[in-house]
Amino acid sequence: MVLALLPLLIIGIWAALDRSTWRDGAARLADADPRWLLMGVLFTLLGWVVAACIRQGALPERLPPGLLLASQLAAGAANLVLPSSIGAHAVTLRFLQGRGIPLARATASLALYALVRPVARIPVLIFFLVALEDIRELGGLAPDRRTLLPAAGGVALGLTALCLLVTLVRPLRRPALGFLGTALTDVRILHTRPSRVLALWGGSALAPVLQGSTVAAVGFSLGLPLSWAQVVFALLVASTVAGAVPAPGGIGPVDAALVLTLAALGAPMGLSTATVITYRALTIWIPLLPGTLILSALVHRKVL
């Protein structure tokens, strides 16, 4: 929790020390172009639809599209309560069980969803690094070997500890093996269906591009002096570097990393901060009330 709050504390200290830059960002926010903000709303809505498609792609059974989309809106509200997307996964798990999906298969679907999304982001990041000339020289912003090696070591250590725990603790062995068997079976079935592969992998690759497009639309409404490719690249780098820090909805670490990355790409610090704050308001805080109402309605109707 301390790590999650530290980036916000740094931004707060900067805001207190550099009030003129902060006021400049607030003034730009008051003069934002509503047409670009409307585009940001559109990209946000598309992001929810894509998230529902990814959820469907991670499960062989067909889910009702309307209820699935509603569950993702409700999950977005729950995601602000617990770190590391636990709130969203809990709502989705209840939704899947309510549709008659066994617990093992529902849990395997959530694990596949959580695994595929960061993996699918890697080729998108590589594409922006290699194919786009206006950010090719900025590859130094991407994680280097000194960053990736400790991260890879931490992941390997965690997997090793998990394997030892399952091997040595007998009561965990049977449910763990059952879950693994279910997950592998579902993965094999899903990857024999082109529609599921497209929804799962294509949606997971498209999701960060839509998020970056939302940031870009908000930034353009404020006069952000960066290209669309630079803003999407900044979002990819920030979410890759800071996304591992457990924070509710990713708020805090990713926001701080995004502000610093936009500034490193040439945007004024105050404008970068105003862009990220407006992006969060558009995608998190404004939808919070309707998401909470949908969550309450789904619980009342025993969908969750």
The run of helices and strands is HHHHHHHHHHHHHH
Biggest sheet architecture: none
Radius of gyration: 20 Å
- Fraction of residues in H or I helices: over 70%
Cα end-to-end separation: 29 Å
- Please count the helical segments: 14
Shape: globular
Mean pLDDT: 78
Strand content: under 5%
Number of strands: 0
Structural class: mainly alpha
The low-pLDDT segments are 1-8
What is the fold's blueprint, element by element?
Elements: H1 2-17, H2 19-30, H3 34-57, H4 65-78, H5 86-98, H6 103-131, H7 133-136, H8 145-168, H9 170-190, H10 194-222, H11 228-242, H12 253-264, H13 269-285, H14 288-300
Helix pairs in contact: 1-12, 2-13, 3-4, 3-10, 4-5, 4-14, 5-6, 6-9, 6-10, 6-11, 8-9, 10-11, 10-13, 11-12, 12-13
